[in-house]
Design brief:
The complex is a heterodimer of chains A (137) and B (253). With 137 residues, chain A is an all-alpha fold. Chain A has helices spanning 2-12, 15-38, 43-61, 63-72, 77-130. The chains are: A mainly alpha (137), B alpha/beta (253).
């Protein structure tokens, strides 16, 4: 454990940064799982955030694990981890934009339907009040 | 309104309705509805999530009111109105602002122009005879660019593609009820551009615009510059809706 901690500190070169990275990635992962279990986050987004946490954790704490892939891409482990996390964030952002755009369309559809139904009810009520038969509505 | 226009209007009044999108227009909507009633036409007001008494005032003035629970913007409000019109058997919709800028007395001439040209979409232009409208240089530049693009799509001269004083007739009306652009300038320029591209007949006729009776215009230099940039982006990135050509009568394509 001591050796691992020492390697970690050595890798990051900054104990405060090392602890921050560890705390950040663990918090993000735990929070994602907690929100998923409470039903406040869908599986799709929970997996996205857990992926980001994992990238930060592996790149920041176990740098040597990603070193082969990182060096193949001419990147340092930390750069590789940050790039992967950045790509995941971008993917989540794009996915969110698509989802929100769809929701705006659904919102519009719903609001229009409410307005049309409301007008129809008003018309039916006014016909009933007058005691007429059914008409256009 | 000319006597010919009045005769044309009276002949088929039952199939026409004036659609008035309104957002916080309690100060002006009543007089607009009453002017529309004087033309012998029914009015339907789409209250676009107003926080004031627009819906109450419009109902009291005798209009049918479609009350949206949230603000959808002009495009959303218009599509709701088009859906209502189609569902209730109207074949012609006259679109008119609630702020009093559009003079309902011009509706007769608009309808006559639409009938004579056999147009599916007829725009009331402020610039065709340059009556009663002024604007900043930035805004005029943006308008010119939009007008050029709109004219190309319509294959006819269009000088005022952002005018909201319009006549929409079937089969375009049903297409608008299905899908109507809601992005920036989509409810004016976008709808016109897409209609022209789809083969619908788009024409323009001169109308006189009045000063706004209420609300706040955004015509300072900064707002105009912003309008110019957004207009150019709208033209450059145009990602509009594509209306089906199936409903367009072959002879009119």
């Amino acid at each position: 454990m001591e050796a691992r901690l020492s390697m970690m500190l050595c890798f990051l070169g900054n104990p405060v940064l090392a602890v921050s990275v560890l705390a950040f990635s663990l918090t993000l992962a735990v929070l994602s799982v907690a929100l998923l279990r409470r039903g406040d986050l869908t599986m799709r987004y929970a997996l996205g955030w857990i992926f980001v946490a994992t990238c930060v954790f592996l790149g920041g704490v176990f740098g040597e694990l990603v070193e082969p892939i990182a060096s193949a891409l001419s990147l340092s482990p930390r750069e590789f981890a940050m790039t992967a996390a950045g790509c995941a964030l971008l993917a989540i952002g794009v996915q969110l934009s698509i989802t929100v755009s769809g929701l705006i369309g659904q919102d519009r559809e719903l609001a229009e339907s409410i307005a049309l139904l409301h007008a129809r009810i008003e018309l039916i009520e006014s016909i009933e009040e007058r005691g007429d038969g059914p008409s256009e509505c | 309104m000319s006597s010919a226009a009045a005769r044309g209007l009276a002949a088929v009044t039952s199939k026409k309705v004036v659609l008035i999108p309104a957002f916080n227009e309690q100060a002006t909507v009543e007089s607009v509805i009453s002017e529309v009633a004087q033309m012998g036409l029914p009015a339907v007001v789409v209250d676009d999530g107003s926080s004031d008494r627009t819906a109450v005032v419009a109902r009291r003035a005798g209009a049918t009111v479609l009350q949206l629970p949230i603000n959808l913007g002009v495009g959303g409000a218009l599509r709701c109105g088009f859906r209502w019109a189609v569902a209730n058997g109207y074949s012609t919709v006259i679109q008119c602002d609630a702020d009093g800028q559009h003079d309902p007395r011009e509706i007769g001439d608009l309808i006559t122009a639409a009938s004579e040209a056999g147009a599916h979409l007829t725009v009331g232009s402020r610039f065709l005879e340059r009556k009663g409208f002024d604007s900043t240089a930035f805004r005029r530049l943006a308008m010119r660019q939009l007008a050029r693009t709109a004219s190309r799509s319509a294959r006819a001269p269009i000088t005022d593609p952002t005018s909201g004083f319009r006549v929409i007739r079937e089969p375009l009306l049903s297409q608008f009820a299905e899908e109507y652009p809601t992005h920036y300038l989509g409810d004016t320029f976008g709808a016109l551009y897409d209609s022209g591209r789809a083969g619908f007949i788009v024409r323009e006729t001169a109308v006189r615009m009045r000063e706004r009776a209420g609300g706040t215009p955004s015509a300072n230099t900064l707002a105009s510059l912003r309008y110019l940039l957004r207009a150019f982006l709208t033209v450059a990135l145009r990602s509009g809706h594509r209306y089906s050509r199936e409903d367009v009568p072959t002879a009119e394509k």
